[in-house]
Amino acid sequence: MIVAFSVSPTGTAGEDGSVSEAVAAAVRVVRESGLPNRTTSMFTEIEGEWDEVMDVVRRATEAAGAGAPRVSLVLKADIRPGHAGELDGKIQRVERLLADED
User: Fold this and answer.
1) CA 3 → CA 15, 50, 86, 91, 97, distances in Å?
2) Which long-range contacts (CB under 8 A, 24 or more apart) does 11-14 make?
């Protein structure tokens, strides 16, 4: 499965409204998990089995929310049993189709 998620504490933003330190804490948990992942400006994607992915999401949410009175979590999942390597595979298939148009 692939999970795309965004997590942000509320009530603890810096003077400029930034939550980058909290987001970095969450991304650190994801990267240390050893599961395939990527982070973009809006979401972090992680791939693995249900239990391991959801455990990482839970721990990343806890890390982002440390000291915050509230945490917002947005999560989207692509659950496709029997498939692995789709974090890159999905993108590669689309890129091949786009290249064929040239």
Assistant:
1) 31, 9, 11, 15, 24
2) 11/68, 11/69, 11/70, 12/67, 12/68, 12/69
SS3 45: strand
- Distances 83 to 20, 22, 29, 74 between C-alpha atoms, Å: 33, 32, 24, 23
pLDDT tens track for 4-41: 999 999 876 566 778 899 999 999 999 999 999 999 99
pTM value is 0.88
Bridge partner list, 78: 2
Tokens 């395939």 map to which residue? Answer: 36
Q: With contact defined as beta carbons under 8 Å apart, do 45 and 38 qualify?
A: yes
Q: Between vectors from CA 85 to CA 79 and to CA 91, what angle results, nearest 5°?
A: 90
